[in-house]
Amino acid sequence: MAKVVYEKKRGAGGVPAPELLRLAAEALLGLDEEVAAKSPLASEEELLAAALEEAAQRLEPEAGLNGAELLRRLREAGWLQEPGRGGFAAAPELLRALELRALKRLLLPPPARAAGPWPQPGRRGPHEPHGAAVPWRWGEPLRLDAAATLQAALPRPPAELHPADLRVREGEGGRRLAVALLLDCSHSMVLYGADRFGPAKRTALALAHWVRAGGGENQAFCIHDEAEEIAAARLPFVRVQPSHTNTAAGLARAREWLRRRSAAERVAVLITDGRPTAVTADDGRIYKNAWGDDPLIREKTLAAAVRLRKTGVHLQLYLLGGEAQARAFSAELVRRAHGVMVETDPERLGWRVLLDLQRLN
Hints:
- This protein is α/β, with parallel strands linked by helices and 361 residues long.
- It has helices spanning 17-29, 33-37, 44-59, 67-77, 92-104, 146-153, 197-213, 247-259, 295-310, 324-337, 349-360; strands spanning 3-4, 80-81, 89-90, 128-135, 160-161, 167-172, 177-184, 217-223, 227-230, 265-272, 278-280, 286-288, 314-319, 340-343.
- Helix 9 (295-310) packs parallel to helix 10 (324-337).
- The chain is globular.
């Protein structure tokens, strides 16, 4: 039998790699978004260094580890990447560690997979390979192409197989669940002495792993004055913005993304703490009004919910605020979309979201 040689990444500067990865994951998951929002001029580097030092003091109080030094070591190890002006990005190893830790905190059973033999009459299989063999990337499902993998290892002495030799084939079909997660990134998510954005972001990380492990796909979107797609590597570093909430733009982005998915269940999950306060006008400008129940914002947002329903997308809205006006608008929104509204405590948010999705899946 061939011997597989695993190349274990070492931590930089004398800190063992598992310990360095654990500190980084704890720091990012434990980041207090309310504190971060009170320092709008602080850079990602300063916030992360402070969070790393706090995590090190909590987990290794006698080690005397410095936050700036830990940050430098993470960069040297290749677990933090800086893609230009976009800020930090998590390498696949760090991102998977974050997702798994966030999911384990929820104490939920693993996602259900499709039952029965494959292929099934009238259904595509869980993975239909197509195209050329490509190198396997860390964290991806290992759908191994044995012939291409052995061919990549042939130039070296026999009986040695390295991770860089692994080849997989991309495929399609069999996805049971597609989830568009809409995160309210407006400033109200950290106001009034409560951090609602931290639990929402941890939910997004847990959801990413949970959906992918079940054979589905997901995409997170940040809702502020507009709505933007969040790259998976950037999700741990997303912060609230001094902005309004353009829910209609978020529903439109979710609809466009889900419309192109072939999953049996397509779901838009909206996590917010209140009613919308912005909308994109017909001329493309952003119209804002944080006071009262604005007719323009109301009608355009409700119309976006109706379009979502007509696309065949199921809407699940999780309300983290207790304002009566927000509750009334959210109830009307899910009524138009034929969806579901759930009022929940931020600390129970992730558990509730994944439990509801498990029932759909």
